[in-house]
């Protein structure tokens, strides 16, 4: 029986279902920075950490930024069915672990995963009711500046990432929302992502996530 409030009225309860938010975009768009800022703000999300075989970059922490594993360990997880999606990106393997994602959704927790465009397309096929957000750079010139500034790619790899990004920008119709990550506007970008999540929580017909 629903409890009445002090005026004798039955309170209105919004329908609530856990969301799966998929954040994607070209390399250098700023996905890691956005997630880091959301974590620090204490936003109520379960952040699923991606598994990867790529080497750690300066300042990255294992089991925080990524789960850094060997190729052998990654393949073992893959063969055991422990990944929701996986892909080889620029010569390194990336994958979203299945169990943490299932546990979070099972307990009704809104959850966010970060994947590349290829990974987002795969998740779209198996979990179409997820919320897909495309994080875009303000321009290809700005994207090149960011990739060059972080000094983690050789000239060949930089050119390859920019070429790939041009194709990835054409995948925008795959997504539900697009957020442009302009220089020095990270707080605004985080606010826009949070506004998308808030709007999704207000849907009259909530998304039904099954995994």
List keywords for this structure.
211 residues; alpha/beta; Rossmann fold; five-stranded parallel beta sheet; 7 helices
Report on this model:
With 211 residues, this protein is of the alpha/beta class. It has one domain (20-201): Rossmann fold (3-Layer(aba) Sandwich), CATH 3.40.50.300. 37% of the residues lie in helices and 18% in strands. It contains 7 helices and 9 strands, in the order βαβββαββαβαβααβα. A 5-stranded parallel beta sheet has the order 2-7-1-8-9, sandwiched between helices. The protein has a 4-stranded mixed beta sheet with strand order 4-3-6-5. Helix 1 (31-40) packs across helix 7 (186-201) and helix 5 runs antiparallel to helix 6. It is globular, with a radius of gyration of 19 Å. The protein starts with 19 loop residues before the first strand and ends in a 10-residue tail after the last helix. The mean pLDDT is 91.
């Amino acid at each position: 029986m629903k409890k009445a409030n002090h005026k004798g009225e039955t309170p209105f309860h919004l329908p609530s279902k856990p969301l799966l938010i998929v954040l994607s975009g070209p390399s250098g768009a700023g996905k890691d920075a956005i997630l880091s800022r959301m974590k620090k703000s204490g936003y109520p999300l379960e952040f699923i950490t991606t598994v990867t075989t790529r080497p750690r970059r300066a300042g990255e922490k294992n089991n925080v930024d990524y789960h850094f594993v060997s190729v052998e360990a990654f393949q073992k997880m893959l063969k055991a069915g422990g990944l929701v999606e996986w892909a080889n990106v620029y010569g390194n393997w990336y994958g979203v672990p299945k169990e943490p994602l299932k546990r979070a959704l099972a307990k009704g927790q809104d959850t966010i995963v970060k994947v590349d465009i290829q990974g987002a397309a795969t998740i779209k096929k198996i979990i179409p009711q997820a919320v897909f957000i495309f994080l875009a750079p303000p321009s290809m010139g700005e994207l090149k500046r960011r990739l060059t500034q972080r000094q983690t790619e050789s000239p060949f790899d930089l050119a390859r990432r920019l070429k790939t990004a041009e194709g990835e920008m054409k995948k925008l119709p795959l997504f539900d929302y697009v957020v442009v990550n302009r220089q020095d506007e990270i707080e605004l970008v985080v606010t826009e992502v949070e506004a998308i999540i808030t709007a999704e929580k207000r849907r009259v017909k909530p998304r039904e996530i099954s995994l």
